[in-house]
Amino acid sequence: MKESSSGCKPYPIPPCGHHANETYFGPCPKDEYDTPVCTDTCIAGYPVAYNDDKYFGKDLSQP
């Protein structure tokens, strides 16, 4: 499994298993990943503009 490849801004860091016996994602790297650069654009070829692809919460409801 590798990093996400869907959506406006796919998550650039691949998942890994943080716990013992977590084999689904594979082992985590020994070194930490670099922090990804934040941009305000979608990936090339994504059919929706960045500002049109954002969603915001309107209400907070708690039981």
Low-confidence stretches: none
Helix share bin: under 10%
Q: Tell the overall outline.
A: extended
Mean pLDDT over the full residue set:
82
SSE class: little secondary structure
Largest sheet: none
What is the CA-atom radius of gyration, in angstroms? Answer: 16 Å
Q: What is the rounded distance between the termini?
A: 37 Å
Per DSSP E runs of 2 or more residues, the count of β-strands stands at 0
The proportion of residues in beta strands is under 5%
Tell me what the structure shows.
The protein is mostly loops. 0% of the residues lie in helices and 0% in strands. It contains no helices and no strands. The chain is extended. The N and C termini lie far apart (37 Å).
Task: Tag the structure with descriptive keywords.
single chain; 63 residues; little secondary structure; extended; Papain-like_cys_pep_sf
